[in-house]
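Throughout our pipeline, every protein is held as a single compact record rather than as scattered files. Nothing more is needed to write down the fold, since each code stands for a local backbone conformation. The record that follows is passed on verbatim for readers who wish to inspect the format.
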Amino acid sequence: MFDPFISPNELASQIDVNAIKADYILLSHGHQDHVYDAEQIARNNNATIVAIHEIATWYSNKGIGKTHPMNIGGKVTMPFGTVKMVSAVHSSSLPDGSNGGVAAGFVIETEGTTFYFAGDTALTFDMKLIPEQYDLDFALLPIGDNFTMDIHDAVLAADFVQTDTIIGMHYDTFPYIEIDKAEAKEVAQLADKELILMEIGQTINL
């Protein structure tokens, strides 16, 4: 799973964190709205936290037994496939103010599917490097604006990484990032992109 922020999230009030099963938890950066439930889920499942070195070390020091530190540009093979850590343009600090290293995204190759989880990021030309190495099936891109890209930049990002399927994320959780979903879908449609906006708890197959 990626960036678990569930317990304080009013939109996810129906989700029981203790019922969540995960073997690996990938963290894009250290902000509370991305790591809040990582420790609890990791302890419940003896899961491995995969994150930039500073965040992985922070969790290791908290007694999490299984962590895997990475840094930008690195790739590791896991039982489910490969994980490449790529750059993101965003700040990062941990909930107690500790150094969170730098923000990151991930490219995942697993079971015949390759996708990009952008994390929190601005639009950046570094995204153009991804299709030089990977043929993406879809991309999870932030669309909430204010702290990250908006839908207009996300459409450009999809062009940069050469995919026509966007799973929107990082929107509606706080007033700062509330969006007009119909407008976002129209922007994507006009750019010949499929924008998928999932419901909390929804499962889809791609």
Observations:
- The two ends are 16 Å apart (CA to CA).
- The helical segments are 32-35, 38-45, 53-61, 130-133, 151-161, 181-190.
- The chain has a mean pLDDT of 97.
- The chain has six helices and ten strands.
